[in-house]
Fold ABC transporter ATP-binding protein.
Amino acid sequence: MKDYIIELNNLTFSYSDGTKALNNLNLKIERGKKISFLGINGAGKSTLFLHLNGILKPTKGEIVFNNMPLKYSQKELKKIRQKIGIVFQDPDIQLFSANVYQEVSFGAMNLNLEKAEVIRRVDKALQDTNVFEYKHKPTHFLSYGQKKRVSIADILVMEPEVIILDEPTSSLDPKHSAMIEELLNDINKTGTTLLLSTHDIDFAYSWSDYIFILRNGELVGEGTPAEVFENSEWIEAGAIEKPLVFEVYKALEAKGLVHSHAIPRNKDQLLKLIDK
């Protein structure tokens, strides 16, 4: 039986100008998985994420976390934001302290922990994100990739059960994108559930355990990466493209040049099939 950490029941939200951003959204997120949300701009991904730790409150419907409906008192919101953390797309929105150590320690200090526990958590978060050597450096002197990792450390220090990331590889070169991917994999190995939105279809295909496709605030498709990209109706409805590795494999398969019970998820897996 699957263990769902988050459930959305008929989640609906309209902005003050009347724009309906989410429309009777129903979905379940399995604990410990790597989940990607795909869709064009305006599909509702960011609005959804802002609901998951109570930044926005639904017009209708509910969010269930660990089998308990989300409540919106200050006390309950503080609890949920310790359990579900958000890493925003632009790290400059998130980072505000004078240097890296102060930045990452802020969240832990607000948990009223013992000083030794704060130090332990901050040092671990800095080491896990590979920014420990920059701990005394002013945040505004960091590179964009370094800022991205510090913004993840900001959330890691809280030791959440769920981390939400809005476009984590946006504006990064391939080297730094690979570093973020490796970091996310390491975080997930600890049992942390990861949710991200991305326009990088190839990354979502190779990285995700499960994918949701949104369009106009509604769910148009969900499944494993192979299930999602095998379904042309979902792809068309979500106005997204198929991953390059997937398309190349399908073209080779159609010509009888390759065959595999497991469709390759990345370039290396595809090349191994071709070399056989």
Notes: The chain has a mean pLDDT of 94. The chain has two domains: 4-93+160-242, 244-276. Residues 174-189 form the longest helix (16 residues).
